[in-house]
Amino acid sequence: MITQELKLPPSTSGKDLKTNNNTPQKNNILSGNEKEQVSESYRKASFTKRHIFTLAGTLLLLIAGAFSVYLLQPQFQEMNLSRMNTVGGMILLALTSFLLIFRLSFLAYISRLFFRYKPVNSVTDEELPSCTVIVPAYNEGKQVYSTLLSLVNSLYPAEKLQLIAIDDGSKDDTWGWMKKAKEELGDRVAIYQQPVNQGKRHALYRGFKMGTGEVFITVDSDSIVEKDTLRNLVSPFVTNKNCGAVAGNVRVLNNEKAIIPRMLNVSFVFSFEFIRSAQSVLGSVLCTPGALAAYRSKAVRNCLPEWINQTFMGQPSDIGEDRAMTNMILKQGYHVLFQRNAYVLTNIPEKFSSLHKMFTRWERSNVRENLMMSKFAFKTFRDGSKSGTRLLLVNQWMHMITAYPLFLMMLVLLLLHPVLFISSTLLSILIFSSLPAFFYARKYNISEAFWAYSYSIFYTFSLFWITPYAMATANRRGWLTRELPQKK
Fold this sequence. Notes:
Blueprint: H1 25-28, H2 32-38, H3 49-71, H4 73-84, H5 87-114, E1 131-137, H6 143-152, E2 161-167, H7 174-185, E3 190-193, H8 200-210, E4 215-219, E5 223-225, H9 229-239, E6 243-252, H10 259-281, E7 292-296, H11 297-308, E8 311-312, E9 315-316, H12 321-331, E10 335-346, H13 352-374, H14 387-401, H15 403-416, H16 418-432, H17 434-443, H18 446-449, H19 451-462, H20 466-472
Parallel strand pairs: 1-2, 1-4, 2-3, 6-10
Antiparallel strand pairs: 4-7, 5-10, 6-7, 8-9
Helix pairs in contact: 3-16, 3-19, 4-5, 5-10, 6-7, 8-11, 10-17, 10-19, 11-12, 12-13, 13-14, 13-20, 15-16
Keywords: Cell membrane, Glycosyltransferase, Membrane, Transferase, Transmembrane, Transmembrane helix
Protein name: N-acetylglucosaminyltransferase
Region (Disordered): 1-34
């Protein structure tokens, strides 16, 4: 039993951490009221004058853009008429119309799937499988200590939980915090240290090789899990024999700090609770996130040699290990699901320099793994319907194929018609960002939902180059983040 208090979100307070992991089953499954309390940590948000000013400025800018479109109707009509008088203009009009129809149709399809989604309820203690939780850490400092404590205090039978933490050659005090956790937790956790930094994939590989559980769970070392997360995460393996992997529900841990985490917190809700819910209905979640994912150990062992030795354009793959593992499990014919009730809170970059590096790494991984997925998705890779999975992949390719044409079109319009381009772009943001904003408002609270608009403006005007750049540099290696600040 742990007596060390740990500062966590309201749902996992220091008092709650003193929970006996051998509690009888009737006390292990949270009641409906307690589940509401779990999500309370996502509803509370304080607003400073800077936050209020940012949101107010966002709304004023979008309203001004919409009003400008109304005032500039004659100029828009003139520009459209001039386009229709040229072959190039007609082609451009046809392409943009096709893209708009495709996007709206795909959104309608995803929406229909979303309303069919239901998370799997937690099974009983007796039914829960044995699990190996692997926590790779690199330059994480004290946060890895908090992560390990949150895992040990999960409502999961202690005798069924193997916890392995691996320091991947950190240059800071990460190993010291892992030893501190070991001193307090005893044989509940096993810690190991890589002699040199080899990358997250190799740290996970070591954990997979040592793991004895029926299910492998990977958790990032900058993350905190809710008390019922692990049991909710692995329950689909019990209820669905075809389940090969499960994605957790990722939320932002440091959303009370900088503006970037606040914006991404709203974006994550839409990405996970809407998009991945829909993908889960198809049994084809495209990526199990590194922050929290579970895999059937048999499926992992089937592809482990291929996964650890994966290359791209002759270079060893040291990024995108989560998407690669997901692809290889889908390829075996397994279903990949999403558990909306398996929450993990994770730290994300608070500065632009770190954020664009993270997004670049993600996009490079998407390029590589879309290519890999295309090799098996249009074959008979599993029983049952495969059209939905293929449509998800086609949508991924549409995003990539249109990256350069849209990028060039944006530059041309910005040079030739700057006022018309900016005003129409702001109107588009106001319209299309209303969906994630409304979704978040319905799920959590209205005030935070407005960050969806700020994030869309931020991404459109400062991160628009990520996908074209990632496609052009997809062969480059390197994690890009997690390095220690350089002393001057």
